Amino acid sequence: MGRKWNNIKEKKASKDANTSRIYAKFGREIYVVAKQGEPDPESNRALKVVLERAKTYNVPKAIIDRALEKARGNSDEIYDELRYEGFGPNGSMVIVDALTNNVNRTASEVRAAFNKNGGNLGVSGSVAYMFDQTAVIGIEGKTADEVLELMMEADVDVRDIIEEDEAVIVYAEPDQFQAVQDAFKAAGITEFTIAELTMLAQTHLTLPADVLPQFEKMIDVLEDLEDVQHVYHNVEFDEE
Asked: Residues 197, 171, 184, 153: is their CA dihedral positive or negative?
């Protein structure tokens, strides 16, 4: 797959932990997903996925409980789910997912982040076809062969199983997210280094050294936007 998920997650978690923005983003996402269905993860699969992701980012229980209580209450806050597709320097591809209560503000901020950093917004569908929605779940303490055996015993279909650094990462279809986790939990594994439903690029691009900083700045600006929940791209970063 070519993505070092632990490295990416640690970099983002460290960055977001300094600003607490990750907590605000999760709080908003949990509220929206809980509001769309039942505020109970056992009956709301989408909510269960978000809560599993929140655990891997160490989101405080108080943040989660507050968002769930808000969804159970009479809050009339409404958020639109938006997806922007665009191009960065040298034809790099970027997808931006947002939750917003002000579409015009979000559109303006996302467009500015692209335009000021060598990129431009594209039309709907101009980039997404080059990405696949994928369940990505990682654990430590097992080998890839052992994880494969666990998945086979549980009759869970996966796309790939890769050892990355000290973790084993399972890539699967989105609808297999819960099945993969259940297979691990049945084997006594309840801690995950990553648990994501994400968009993975089908091919990756390596940017020249003189262009990469501009691209990284664009991604940082996008991720810092209050309304932006997720940013996906096809640029391959060198391991540090």
From this structure: positive
